[in-house]
Amino acid sequence: MGGRTGWQRVARRIRVPLGFAFAAVYLWLARPSWGTMAGSLLLVLPGLWLRGYASGYVKKDAELAVAGPYAHTRNPLYLGSMLMAYGFAAAAGRWEIAVALTGLFAAIYIPTIQSEEAYLRAHFAGFEAYARAVPRLLPRLTGWTVEGGEGGVAKGEFSMELYLRHREYNSAMGAAAIYVALAVRLVLPALRQVSVVR
After folding, report:
1. DSSP 71
2. Per residue of the chain (198 residues), what is the pLDDT tens digit?
3. Distance between CA atoms of 22 and 174, rounded to whole angstroms?
4. Which of 82, 108, 144, 193 is the most buried (most CB within 10 A)?
5. What is the pTM of this model?
6. Which residues of 7-23 are buried (b: 16+ CB within 10 A; e: fewer)?
7. 3-state class of 102 per DSSP?
């Protein structure tokens, strides 16, 4: 994958461990309420759905994904992750977390996306036409129309086999774990107070 800058290589390597480190800091800073947690589902659930839906279309290194959510945005997996992350920032009840996330996304996601696009451009002849028609992140309302051939919206079907192969169910398990941790943060002080009173 030639053409990557030094930071693009670093960003790709550290994004997962950095995510775990950020999650630890997040739980330490979080000041959730039942209301913020309920409201956060408006972002977290669509993010989970989008990531799961997109994972069923990805055939890494085999073909360019242009169907399903990829007909609307070139990076539905990252968009889903961002929806989830900002949803959890809302659940935490701390605007500082949302600001930190914005900086983290700018530092990590932008170079990672640029690096991946350089790879796709070098390996798939149809990428340029696709990139001209489909936005990098914010989705277009109508699905991309394939130029030439049969025309119409890009063809493809969701594959549960691909979803399972990519282990995208881990996102749902991780989201559930975060909500459990936030709930514990809410309940634990109340339990301590009850034990002190007794």
Report:
1. G
2. 445 566 666 666 666 667 777 788 888 889 999 999 999 999 999 999 999 999 999 988 888 999 999 999 999 999 999 999 999 999 999 999 999 899 988 888 888 899 899 999 999 988 999 999 999 999 999 888 776 433 445 667 899 999 999 999 999 999 999 999 999 988 876 656 555 445
3. 14
4. 144
5. 0.83
6. ebeebbeebeeeeeebb
7. helix
Distance, first Cα to last Cα, the chain = 64
Residues 86, 95 contacting (CB under 8 angstroms)? no
Query: Within a domain: residue 1?
Result: no
The CA distance from 30 to 89, in Å, is 8
Question: CB 27: neighbour CB atoms within 10 A?
Answer: 16
* Tokens describing residue 77: 């997996």
How many angstroms separate the CA atoms of 34 and 94, rounded?
A: 14
Q: How far is CA 69 from the centre of its chain?
A: 13
How many Å apart are CA 37 and CA 169, to the nearest integer?
21
Per the structure, the count of domains in the chain is 1
Classify residue 156: in a domain, yes or no.
Answer: yes
Of the candidates 23, 21, 43, which has an alpha carbon nearest to the alpha carbon of residue 177? Answer: 23
Task: Note whether 111 and 11 are within 8 A (CB).
Answer: yes
- DSSP class of residue 198 equals -
Q: How many residues does the chain have?
A: 198
